[in-house]
Amino acid sequence: MFDVCVVGAGTMGSSAAYHLSKNEGLKVALIGPDEPEHKTPDNEVFGCHYDEGRITRVISPIESEQILAYRSMLGYEQLERESGLKIYTEVGFAVFGAEGDPEIEDYSSTAERFCEKHNLVFERMDHGMIKEKWGYLGIPSHFNGGYSKKYNGHISVRNLVKACQSVYTKNGGERYSSRVQRIVPSDGQGFEIELDTGDVVRSAKVVVTCGAFSKFFDLLPREQQVDCQLVGHTVMKFELTDEDRVKLRDLPSLMYKPRPNTTDYIYILPPIKYPNGKTYLKFGHTTEPSLDNEDIARNLETLDDVKNWHCRTDYPEARRYFNSILSKLFPTVQPVAGELDFCVMTFTPSGKQYIDFIQDGMFVAFGGNGKSAKMGLEIGNICARSVLKGFWDYDLDKEQFGVQFRD
User: What is the dihedral of CA 290, 235, 378, 192, to 10 degrees?
Assistant: First the structure.
């Protein structure tokens, strides 16, 4: 019988297990498949942490995201020291969009307030300043934005998960690399967690952090249908020549809003060397499906939808879209090749993560809205603290993270 079982071994789950393992004498289990060598539908479940590059930034128009990202970054140094793995790279963060766009102004204003509070620097930039600093960028002449270096850059989410799990097991935590088939309350005696191997793990309390897959496999109470939308997203990694890698060596992590009066952004990560030895410039998007941009995002409903999206091998519409952005924003870059990858994001009606008790003894953390990697380490801390206390134990208002249910 475990004291706490964490179901889901991705960013939030591994972080929760890491924080729980700091409590001496606590019996903890972490359950979830490891990253597969190749993605096929036979794998059943997938994670969004199968990557080397995610933007991390304290520059955000949402205060809770600023705080959780900042506190996560404060924890990377210790985790890197404990695990011996490199997680965080500080290259700065910039946001650019059309002059007068209210979202860009909101980004800049909230960034200035946060940076002033924490003795950091946020530099507003007009088009001339942008071109002076990054002359290779094809930014339109009517665009402006801002830039901040400290506590902004990118993380290896793959190493974040590995680091958390490494320290967790060193601290005595038990690891099951199985998929959970069902979680069943056990007559007031905690929970029975049925694995796909046929084994049953028993635990007094449970933390469920399975991302898009939290909707499936009877993980949550059947009588409550969580309100969230699963969206298939596409990213593209452009393999760089040595010449272009050197040219872009000072590029920060970047959010670029190509069209005003929309909520669509392109996010770009600077050159990152991947385990295959190649260096990539990575493009992604925040676009949700609609009549004019359904070429790069899809609403997903069933488990098969989710699995098939993860296992796609090509998507010509998305390839054309990202190639178009590359040619406009980096007109002198000549990539060796472009590789597409696919992930699934979980969107909530509030735009905030679900971090909440869903029933007595069961805590959940999912619904990342496409931006939780940068906050994952601290969200894991919230999970650990709250599930042990049996109530919300954090200095942010719990109501903003409450789970919503469909009628």
Answer: 80
